[in-house]
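pinned: reference chain
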Amino acid sequence: MSSISNKEFHLRIEKTQKLLQDRSIQALFCTLETNFQYLLNAKIKPTERLVLAIIKSNGNPHLICPAFEIHNYIENTPLSQDDISIWEETEDPFLLVKNICTDNGIQDANIAISPQTPFTVFSKIKSALSHATFVDALPIMETVRIVKTDQEIEFLKKASHFSARGIEAAFDQLSIGITEKEASTLVEKEMSLLSGEPSLFALVQFGANSSNPHGSPSDKKLKRDEVVLIDAGTSYNGYIGDITNTTVFGQPNEKFLEIYNIVEGANYRARDTGRVGALPSQVDAAARDYIVEKGYGQYFTHRTGHGIGLDVHEAPYIIQTNSVPLSLKNTFTIEPGIYIPGKFGVRIEDDVVAKSNGCEQLSSPIRRYWEK
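pinned: its structure tokens
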């Protein structure tokens, strides 16, 4: 499994520092979450112990971590030991934060805080740096992360492919009487076998349950000729695929085919519209207006899509209120749906990348699986 090079991580740091300089912000703080992973490559699950990256507007990043974990960060980040400060179990790590910031002249600076930072951690940082001014780092990190590199797109293609194939492998194993929970376990198992990474989610809904756009798997048992909606995703090198496929276990009726054809048409129209320079609101409208035209607008109850990357939901958001033009190599989902309460729902979700002539699919899910 190939990975991001240290050279690429240094480029990411440089881009972030340029944005900090442009905004007169002297440092960015992030804890163990996806912004940390994006900037420093560490894929380590957070605990109650403080791990904090300090990205100054110039110079090398600095890391604060527990003493007994230092080797994890030397091995898994582009940082040298000189760029890492440690704290012992009996010490206050926030005093270390204060001392490092004082030594670097940023104790009373403008500091951007990653939005995924736990509130308790932020509160203690704020107390330690009582004269600093804190701002939201979201606009900075969205700007850095929203345009993907070719390597990131390759990782997303694999994640999307494994997600699609995992769903299809589960379709092949469905049988009368299987529960949604059991089918969800099947999907997760198949995706994990393909990707070599833990599966992230597998929402499985049968029959009337599929009319709930984000329902959790239940003990409902599958019956002949019922709708099966599966929304699932796994990752590859941390980059996340997100695919939804809807089929029928048996033979579809005329109403299902009518709804499926409309959702499929909405998906095509949104993908065709999602070219470089288009507004996300226009992409949403391409799908939504078609569904409204067919008389089912009230049953399309969510946005048309969202960005994908290290987070399953990130910028750009394909929603009616987003007027920031799409850029080359933006990656996102197209997922229109129609949900008839108490009857069934249909959602068709593709992972795509913006190109000059429209969206390119990152994978090729088999649609109309009942015909297979």
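why pinned: The two ends are 32 Å apart (CA to CA). Residues 150-172 form the longest helix (23 residues).
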